[in-house]
Amino acid sequence: MKINLVTIGKLKEKFLVEGVEEYLRRIKNFAKVDVREISECRTVDEEGKKLLAQVPRDSFLIVLDVAGVELTSEQLAEKISALTLRGVSDITFIIGGAFGLSDEVRQAANFRLSLSKMTFTHQMARLIIVEQIYRAFKINRGEPYHY
Prior knowledge:
single chain, 147 residues, alpha/beta, Alpha/beta knot, five-stranded parallel sheet, 5 strands, 42% helix, globular
């Protein structure tokens, strides 16, 4: 399995950098991980084009979107497991910038995922999604961590 994380901007706060690095290190026990950071642009449309240009061909695209579907941790694990059973070996998660996502990115998504009805910074969303990806692998393997 390969997990791609395509994001706008670099992490700035030390605690976020350390947290994301820790979970990426843990995920590497289960999957190859590639993180691509795109610099902020003047418009969401420009950012959208740059984000989509970083999505590998044939990758299943999950876009973090406030208007997406909310899943429990178990449901995200089931989604990843079902994709694997369908032969999907490459999943890309896109996290937009401070001003959201372009319609082009939303339309390109195979699945739109909402982390919560609450609003998080895109840097905080990165930490949350990498922790949830790690949790999903642990759930799918029946390993302790989730409870």
